[in-house]
From TrEMBL:
Keyword annotations from UniProtKB, A to Z: Cytoplasm
Encoding gene, per UniProt annotation: recX
Localization per record: Cytoplasm
Role of this protein: Modulates RecA activity.
Coarse class of the protein's main subcellular location: cytoplasm
Pfam families, per the entry: RecX_HTH1 (PF21982), RecX_HTH2 (PF02631), RecX_HTH3 (PF21981)
Protein name per Swiss-Prot or TrEMBL: Regulatory protein RecX
Source species, domain of life: Bacteria
Length: 212
């Protein structure tokens, strides 16, 4: 068992002003984020035992996982599952991942319920995806079925028809052939986009009114 040693030097890292190199007994020992240094009151001349060092490194790993997750979330919202996959790929242990995700959920950085609602609104509007397609996307991302169902129920019927009509009318214009053939191809296209048969029939009815 390593006995008690003394911190003999602390220096800020050249490429990251928020991280510090810690020297123990004149030799480099480890590096920590400034938050961990402050938490453990690491300073030159302070004795540090083997147990204390393990505690510091344990907190450092958890803090590092948290910061990595926050950076990952900085580009766009992510689901619980996506954050877990990212941290797992980075090599963190399950206990650290569990703790990190719980903290992120408490701080509302990760919220699958809110994610599902935002995803549905954005994809319906900009990607013109129907409920069936959106359901599969959210389930694939690990969102719970109850959150998926709630988000899909929040879709306004008129908004869904409008989204389907926008791409359905475009598909109709781009399709050659007799009206019945254009109708068949447009319907198949919309169904593949995840729109229900009721929505598709409503869109075809509107297209028919415009073209007659």
């Amino acid at each position: 068992m390593m006995g008690e040693s003394v911190i003999t030097k602390i220096e800020v890292q050249k490429n990251n002003k928020h991280r510090y190199n810690i020297y123990v007994d004149e030799a480099y020992a480890f590096s920590v984020h400034e938050d961990i240094m402050i938490k453990h009151r690491l300073q030159k001349g302070k004795p540090i035992s083997a147990d204390e060092r393990r505690g510091v490194l344990s907190d450092e790993e958890r803090n590092d996982a948290y910061l990595k997750a926050v950076r990952f979330l900085g580009t766009r919202p992510r689901t619980n599952k996506e954050v877990r996959q990212k941290l797992h790929a980075a090599g963190y242990e399950e206990a650290v991942i569990d703790e990190t995700v719980r903290r992120l959920e408490t701080e509302r950085y990760v919220d699958d319920r809110d994610f599902a609602k935002q995803w549905v609104e954005q994809r319906l509007r900009s990607q013109h995806k129907g409920k069936a397609y959106l359901r599969q996307e959210l389930l694939h991302k690990g969102v719970g079925r109850e959150h998926v169902q709630e988000a899909l129920q929040g879709i306004d019927w008129e908004d869904e028809v409008s989204s389907a009509f926008e791409i359905g009318a475009k598909k109709w214009r781009q399709t050659s052939g007799e009206p019945f053939e254009k109708k068949r191809k447009t319907a198949a296209f919309l169904l593949r986009r995840g729109f229900s048969n009721d929505v598709v029939q409503q869109v075809l009815h509107k297209i028919n009114d415009i073209n007659n």
